[in-house]
Each structure stands twice: as C-alpha cells, then as structure tokens.
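Progress note, project year one: complex with arginine.
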Amino acid sequence: MNKIKENTGIAIAHAINDLYPGVEITPQDLASYLEYPPDTSMGNLALPCFRLSRPLRTSPDKIAASLGRYLTADKLPACLSSAKPTGGYLNFRVSDNYLTSTVLPDILVRGELCGATDEGAGKTIVLDYSSPNVAKPFHVGHLGSTVIGHSLRKLFEYRGYKCISINHLGDWGTQFGKMIVAYKRWGDCDVIERGGIDELVELYVKFHAEAEVDKSLEDEARQEFHKLETGDEENLKLWRWFIDVSMKEYDITYKQLGITFDSYAGESFYIDKMDAQIEKLREASLLKLDNGASIVDLSEYDMPPCLILKSDGSTLYTTRDIAAAVYRYDTYHFDRCIYVTSSAQCLHFAQLFRIISLMGYNWADRLVHVPYGTVSINGEKLATRTGNVVLLKDLFRIATEKVYDIISEKNPALEGEEKRATAEAVGVGAIVFYYLTSNRIRDINFNMDDALNFEGNTGPYAMYTYARTCSILRKATADGIEPDTSCGGVTTPEERETLFTLSRFGEAVDFAIRDYEPSVVTRYILDLCAAFNRFYHNCPILTAKDEKTVRFRLALTSAVKNTLGAALDLICLKKTEKI
Ligand code: ARG
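Model obtained:
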C-alpha cells in the first residue's frame, strides 16, 4: 500500500473516531477509498465522502466539511500539508517537505529497485505463457500471452517471488497428422529449410483447403498421427524437424522481445506422464464412457463434459494439461501456477481446475487462469486455418522500419548498429506498449499509426521521455554538475506533481500484481511521462536560476529515470538511452 494513502487513512480514521463515536471504519478501508483527482490544483488526494454517508448517516458535504475542520495541520501526518473540503470531497495536499526530503532521496538511494519489495520471498510462482502451436505461425494472437505472461513474471520477480517461466509448446496433437499428410503429398524439404515456418503454414492452410473437397484427407491425417503416437520412425523424424524449424523462428521473436524461458516442456513432454493420471481418474470413478470415449461429467458444476480420451484411445489437450499440472506441482511445489491464454480458453481452464480438485489434489486452488481479449488488425479477425494471419515478425519489421525513418529525422547523429538496435527496440516496444495499454480482457483493434505516434500516449513517447532524462543527466555530467537533494526543494506545481507521481509507483506495481494486470504499469508510465514533460517544459533544469535549483531538478530528473526505467522494464520494453 502506498505510504501516503496509508497515513492519510489513519488520520481520517482518528478524525471519524472523535467526530462520530461508535462508527468503525478501518484505516485500510479509508485509504482504499482515496482517489487521485484529475485536476491537481485541488489537491493530490481526494476522499469521496459519499462513501461514508451511509455509516455516518450524514450527507457527503457535511462529512467533508466536518472532517476538514477537524483535520488541521497539527492533526495531519507529516506527508500532508492540508485537508480542504470541496463539495462532497475532502482534498488533501501532500507536503512539499515530505516529497523533497523523504520521497526523492528514497528513490535515489534505491535506484531501479524503488518499487521492489521482498514480499514474495520463499514463494514460487510457475507461469505458463506464450506457448505457440508448432508449425503454426507466431501471430499477433500469441502476442498477448507472450507479453502479459512475461510482464507478470517480471512483476512477481520484482516483488521477490521465485518465478519459473514455462513455454508449454503446442508440439503434440492431431494437427501433426495433418502436417505429415500435407508434407508427404505436397511438401519439399529444401523449400521448407529455406522458407522456414511460413512454408509449414502454407502446407497447413493447403491441407484445410484440400480437405474441404477431399474428405478422406482427415482420416489419413488421423492415421498418420496414430503412427506418430505409436513411434513410427519416419513420422517422428518429420515431427522433430517441424519443431526445429518452428523454434528457430520463435527464438528470433523472443530475442527481439528480450524474453527467455526456464523450461520449454511442451505438450509432448507429458506423453508418458498421462497414463498415471488417467489411472487416478479411473480409480476415483471420475471417468465415464460416452460412445466409446472417456469423459468427466461436470454437469454438477454447470459445465459441459470434459473429454479425456477419444474413442480410439488418443489423448487430448486437457489430458496433457492434467499431467502437466501434476508434474509442475511435484517438481516446483508452486504457491501459484498461472496460465496466460486468450479468453477463448476460459472453459478449458475452468474444467481443468475442477478436475484437478475432484482428483483430490489439495493444491487445485493455486491454479490461476489469466485470460485476455482478442486482437484484430484494422477490424479484421485472425484465423490460421484460412490463412488470414498477421505475423508478429511482419508487424515488428514494419514498425522497426517506420521508427528508423522517424529517428533519421529526429536524431541524424544516431548511426550504424546503435541506430538499428534503437529502431528495433522502439518499433517492437511500440507494439508491446500499445498492447499493454488497455485492460487485458478487452478486445484490441491494432492500428500501427496510433502505436507509433511519438506525440501520443505510446511506447515511442515513453521511451523518448526516458531518453530525454538520460540526455539531461549526460549533459550535466559533461558540465561537471551533480544532482543533489540536500539543497533546494519543491517550489513549483510541476515539481510537486512529478514527485507525487513518483511516489505512486509502488502502488501501481501492487495493483498490477493483485489483478494480474500489467496495463496498470503502462498507464502509470503515461502519467509519469506527462508529469515529467510538463516539468521539463515549464521548469528549466540545467539553466535554472541558481545552482541549488539546478542540482535539485537534476535529482528529480534522476529519480524519474530510475522509476521510468524500472517501469519500462516491467512491461518488457527496452531502455533506450538515445533516440
Ligand atoms: N498452445 C496453446 C494455444 O496456443 C496455449 C497453451 C496454454 N497452456 C496450457 N498449459 N494449456 O492455444
């Protein structure tokens, strides 16, 4: 919890205790009611008193007035300087002295760890994310899982948790039967070696187009998959090759995003681990026969039955997920296992978690599904089967090229490898940032121009602001001036707002973790950039009127660099020092 809110909550609780004896509202609840007013000229924090009208049996206006009269300077905590009623709100102003002598030095001492804690020490979190399906393209649909998952990993690590990131590759299932049929009929080894995953996708799309006309292809695919499952050498070799070709491409994308995994145990890893769980399901009398297939009846939980074994005995996605959950618990003893996938899989995970619980695993309540909405590009939905996909690599390439051109104009001095790397970091960052700006569950319609706008609420704008702090500090070092907090202090509204925004960083991380919602950090970044840029435009830094002010403003700039750097890192953006 944010320190300032916490202390404000305590002060309000005291006031209520004295003014309205017998009413019990906890300081924590009061703190959680506090809001950040959009117009900071009124104050930095506001208590909407309508939330208290019922327990206090008084109108919001009267509550605000009486609390305001009571909370004189001597009754306020050190972090606040005043409490003033405006209508039904009680507005608090933070103390400039507190911002100058507590908030600012604290950030400078802690550097990029200014929002970190060790609350997760000793706890392990398994995160299952990205998990593309082999031989299918890495398209924008998987971007959500990849960046939300990785950002959550960074957030939890920032809070001291031990994290295990798993790429649960879709490397098993009937689609491989289809791929094998398609390759045997129409494929060419050299073409695939050269063209990579795109050629595999061509084959996959062709299979579906042909299967529309020739129904026997589906049967043939089932047979080929059966051969693969029963260890046919030729099919196994093809299957491994499809995986290698796909991995090569995924690795390029992960590298661009700066993402690594602790484990690549995909679906095929669980082939020999399913029997034990199927046996356990049977022993617990959970399996029912249904037209030759084995299902778990979940009608009692208002869910459709869950298929565990097909009538030909083959296993399914869910069967492998049961084995995977058990294996992960046995291996990592996780405190939580988080799955990040599109909301299309909500039912799958609800069924999976229920089955794990019915099987008697007492850790079932540690499994968490984190769903996200769909992505369309300029209004068009995506589907692999019809070939209507927008590949992430194409999106990254186009964004990088456009940023490259913008940088050429903005900063002609940037050249060579540094320029290329910066363009890629900003181009990729633009897409990630855009993606992580709205709440994860909302459907997104991606628009490249919006994402790349350096003046909008975008990744490039945030990265550019970060580069601006770096450039100011570089210049100061070159001039031999050091930031210093011991002299000078807050004198302008812009300085106050920037420092107050800095003090909110830890809370943004709290909320992002609580709700599995990296977008809280993204939106915090936008608030911080807005505050800092207002400060930058209205308050000269290196040319301020006296040395005291210069050094104080440099300290402020340095604190923004630390916090912004930490925040960018938490949402998987690279910190570009020059743009
Ligand atoms: N491969 C799946 C897909 O692309 C996502 C896997 C998610 N993880 C899991 N354990 N089911 O839809």
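The chain is about 55% helix and 10% strand.
Residues 128, 131-133, 168, 170, 321, 324, 339, 341 surround arginine (CB under 6 Å).
No further modelling is planned for this target in the current period.
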